Amino acid sequence: MAKDLGQLSEIQRNRDPFVAMNIFLINVNDSKRIWNGIKQIVHFKPATSKKIINIVKDNVEVTDPEVISDAFNDYFANIATNLAKAIPKV
Question: Which residues span the domain enclosing 17?
Fold first, then answer.
């Protein structure tokens, strides 16, 4: 794999798409190596997830995970109805 990563660094300098494709074709059955190659080429940073630990509902801070879940469910289950009510009648 180190050889592949060295080749990918060279690809990055040369921007040779055919060499990059060749490396991916060689590793077609090894998704981990393919993703490592992609990461070497594009340098993306994975998104970090944040756990919601509290929300404010009806001016009250809520920390109970089940109540938070119910609040989100209620909001998204009723958003269309609430928006429709907010549209003025013509």
Answer: 2-42
Give the contacts of 56 (CB within 8 A, at least 6 positions apart).
Answer: 62
Co-location of 61 and 38 in the same domain: no
Per-residue pLDDT tens over the stretch 47-88: 777 777 899 999 999 999 999 999 999 999 999 999 999 999
Q: What sign has the CA pseudo-torsion 76, 81, 86, 87?
A: positive
Domains contained in the chain, number: 2
**HSE value, Cβ hemisphere, 13 Å, CA-based, for 26:** 14
The gap from C-alpha 67 to its chain's centroid, in whole angstroms, comes to 26
